[in-house]
Amino acid sequence: MKPSRLSLKALDLFVAITRTGSVQAAADQAGLSVSTVSHHLRQLETTLGTPLFDHTRRPLRVTPAGAGFQHDIEKALHLIAKAEAALHTGNLSETRQLGLAVIEDFDTEIAPELARLLTGAMPRCHFRHLTRPSHEILDLLRRQSIDIGIAARPQFDPPDLREAPLLRDPFVLALPVTRADAPEAFLDGDTGLPFLRYSANQIMASQIENQLRRLKRTLPDQYEFESNQTLMRLVAEGEGWAITTPMNYIRADRLHRQIRLAPFPGKGFARTLSLFTTDLTDVSVARTVTETLRRLIETRAVTPTVAAMPWLADIFRAFPVSVSEPAKST
How far apart are alpha carbons 151 and 106 in whole angstroms? Predict the structure, then answer.
C-alpha cells in the first residue's frame, strides 16, 4: 500500500475550517496563526489536486468534492483518536492525559476531593480540571476538548454521549427561616415575597420553567441570577424565595441557619446529575471515576443532608455503586 502524503495536522485543520467556516476561527481553536493554517490548507489542496473550498465565499463553503472528503476524513480521524485513547489509557495509574469538567454544584467538597484522589492515582498524567455550567460541559465534550464531564442531564438525551447517572437531585423550595408561610402560598403568590429565578441559560432553569408551565403557574419574571450563592444570600436575608435543589443548598453552607428547605408542593420533580463521556473515553477510567464520585456523593452530600432533613430520604439519593456497570450510551 502506498503511504499517504497527507498530514494529520492539515486534516485536523481542514475539519475545523468546515465546522467553523473560517480560517481565523480554526486558527484560534488550534492556537496557530492564520498564515500557518492557510499554508496547511493550500498544501492539502495541492496534494489532493482539487479545491476543497470555494475561496470566493465568506464564510468559506466546501466544494462538492470537499464535502465528500470531509465525511470520510472525519470518520478516519475519529478512529485514529479512539485508537490513541485506547493506547494511552487502560487504568488510572497508566493514564497520561485526562480532561475533566465538573458542574459548579460539586465545587464545595466533592470536586476538590475527587481531584485529590485522581491526582494521587495518576502520577504521570497531565490532568486538567475545569468548572463550568452543564451546557458548556456538554459542548466541551462534543468538541472533544475534555474526556469526562459531570453535568445535569439535559431535557433531551444527548445521543452522541454516554451517560452514567450519579445523583437524583429533587427540586424543593428555598425559603427564609423568618417566614412560616406554607409552601403552597409561595407558589400561589400569596406571600408578597418575590420569586428568584436561576439564569435562563441553565439546564436547571429550563426544568423549573417547564414544571411551572405544566402546573399552569405563572410567577413574575423580575429577578434572575446566574450565581447560586447570590440567589441563596437573598433568600437568607428574606428578600425572596426560590425553587432550587438540595445540592445547591449544600453549596451555600454558611447560610443554612437562615434558609429552610420545603418539599415542592404537589407532584415533585427532580434533575439527574450524571457523568458523560464520548466513545473515545477509556471505559475503565470512566467507570473508576463514576464509582468514586458515587461514593463521594453518598458520604459527603446525601448522608449528612438526609440526617438533617429526613423527609428527603426517598427523593435525594445517589445512584448505587456497581463496579461492573459501564457508562451507558443514552
Answer: 10
Cβ neighbours, 10 Å, residue 265: 16
Which residues, including other chains, have CB under 8 Å from residue 191's CB and lie 6 or more apart?
179, 181, 185, 241
Contact yes or no for 165/304 (Cβ under 8 A): no
Beta bridge partners of 259: 176
How many angstroms from the chain centroid is the CA of residue 143?
12
Per-residue pLDDT of 128-165, as tens digits, reads 999 999 999 999 998 889 999 999 998 877 778 999 99
Question: What are the pLDDT digits (tens) for 20-58?
Answer: 778 887 887 667 788 888 888 888 888 888 888 888 877
**Which among 167, 166, 204 is positioned nearest to 327, based on CA atoms?**
166
Torsion angle in degrees (nearest 10) through CA of 290, 295, 299, 300: -30
Q: What is the pLDDT, as a whole number, of residue 222?
A: 87
The C-alpha atoms of residue 209 and residue 50 are separated, in whole angstroms, by 51
Give SS3 for 263.
strand
The neighbour count for residue 313, using CB atoms within 10 Å, is 12
For the cut 60, the answer to whether the pLDDT of residue 62 exceeds it is: yes
Contact (Cβ atoms closer than 8 angstroms) between residue 52 and residue 44: yes
